[in-house]
Amino acid sequence: MNVLQDTLQDFEILAFPCNQFGMQEPGASGEEIMKGVEFVRPGGGFQPSFTMFSRVEVNGKNEHPLFTFLKDFCPSTRETFADEKHLYYSPLKNNDVRWNWEKFLVTRSGKPYMRYDPTTKPEDIRNDIMFLLQQDA
Questions:
Q1: CATH of 2-135, one of 3.30.530.80, 3.40.50.2300, 3.30.420.10, 3.40.30.10
Q2: CB 10 within 8 A of CB 135
Q3: Do residues 3 and 123 touch, judged by C-beta distance below 8 A?
Q4: Residue 106 in contact with residue 112, Cβ under 8 Å?
Q5: CA nearest to 33, candidates 13, 50, 12, 55
Q6: Sorted alphabetically, which Pfam families does this protein's record hold (predicted)?
Q7: I want to staple 50 with a disulfide (CB 3.0 to 4.6 A). Which of 5, 23, 36, 43 is the partner?
């Protein structure tokens, strides 16, 4: 995601860590999360050039209202859940975020535009971002 943040003007990536998928984000504080990103996943001294918020829940009875809003506008990228025994929330819903690094593209006016699978590479989103930046200019 750094490559998009670093090469596109008038564009901002907002990251919301979540521990509901395989308990892959155990850090409770922002500092713990940043150390995990730097040294564990992806590791190798990685420093995000985008804004990272505190950990939130994106699904289930305690999901953050932002994700309720985003999911209401953009259908899920998958029909099935990858590995239900490694999902740490309930209840499961059809429009749930399926795993870490699922992405939402939002217009400047705040309208959800598109939802991308966790496996979608950042560069595969560039054309959609460029389209929106031209529309919203």
A1: 3.40.30.10
A2: no
A3: yes
A4: yes
A5: 55
A6: GSHPx
A7: 5
